[in-house]
């Protein structure tokens, strides 16, 4: 029998194991358990060997963890930061509107008649044609849009002129008779004063004079009526020519043809003044204070991408529309440059505002769906540290979020926030600001 297999050998192994456990085990409970296991005298020698091997494995596996009471501090996270500042931003509000002509007029003749001819406009090849839709007409007495046959009105004028001549001749005769009657009355009156004529003769002379004076008044009224008739005849002849009431007109509709009979007041042309245009749009009462008379606004048109037009506020309605509850604002475009009535345009309104803007990359989701946070960089114990701060925002401007800056906000103007690397941060974590990456927002 091998002498190492006896009870003494087992005791020696037990002693070595206990010594090993006492030397390397870091847990008091583990050491107590192993000592109890080795103290059993009935263990088989194979069991002793197994326990010795397990003791060695457990001892050396626990050696690396012995004496480590806390984990090592994590390394600082490299981040990019920026300092928040108050910025002046042009807050633009968009309104859609439809372009309208500056002025639209329906033209008609003041007198009835037959259309004699229409305005002739030149075309290619030095030929002429009747005026039609789309033509631009310059106002002037020498080029009316249409003419009526004025032969009837010419005859009326001739008759009115003859009637005037007749009553004027009658007036001259009455004046002569009145002069004679006045002289006769004065002569008889002088004789009556000398007792050479009777009172009756003087009364008769006075009555003749008064009668001729009344006849003269009637003749004067006839002359006035004849003058009115002659003037009306002249006006009717002039009204046979349909002129343009605005300096530069564009024909929108032509509703008459040559040799067509028209009535007084019947629309024959519709013209527009397109030298200037206007647009009208509605704004809510919360935005009404941002518009003033004479204010210049930018106007954009889909038909002219990349171009803008200058518009000036010319009218602000004093009351809201009963249906839409918005206030109508009218804008005049002095230089249309190709804009046409009916085109859809966009008006940019608003005013400059001071605000603090957060980069989109700096804002992270919070613990709740409606919560947003940023990481502000502060100096703690001489090293930069990231602190989690709650923020609120109420709009997007130039791919940045407008900060609701108030007492409840976690950051304010002048604070430094992380703009890159925030997804790897936790509250209170040390950071390392990359050199040359700090900026101002």
Secondary structure blueprint with pairings:
Elements lengths: L6 H18 L3 H11 L6 H18 L14 E7 L2 E23 L4 E6 L1 E3 L5 E3 L5 E3 L7 E3 L2 H43 L5 H40 L2 E2 L5 E7 L6 E2 L4 E17 L12 E6 L6 E9 L10 E7 L10 E16 L4 E2 L6 E9 L2 E9 L1 E5 L2 E4 L12 E5 L10 E3 L5 E2 L1
Parallel strand pairs: 1-22, 1-23
Antiparallel strand pairs: 1-21, 2-11, 2-15, 3-7, 3-10, 4-5, 6-9, 7-8, 9-11, 11-14, 12-13, 12-15, 13-14, 15-20, 16-17, 17-18, 19-20
Helix pairs in contact: 1-2, 1-3, 4-5
Characterise this structure.
The protein is an alpha+beta fold and 441 residues long. It folds into five domains: 63 residues; 97 residues, conserved putative lor/sdh protein from methanococcus maripaludis s2 fold, CATH 2.40.420; 64 residues, OB fold (Dihydrolipoamide Acetyltransferase, E2P); 88 residues; 80 residues, Beta Barrel (Elongation Factor Tu (Ef-tu), domain 3), CATH 2.40.30.170. It is 29% helix and 35% strand. The chain contains five helices and 23 strands. A hairpin with a 6-residue loop joins strand 12 and strand 13.
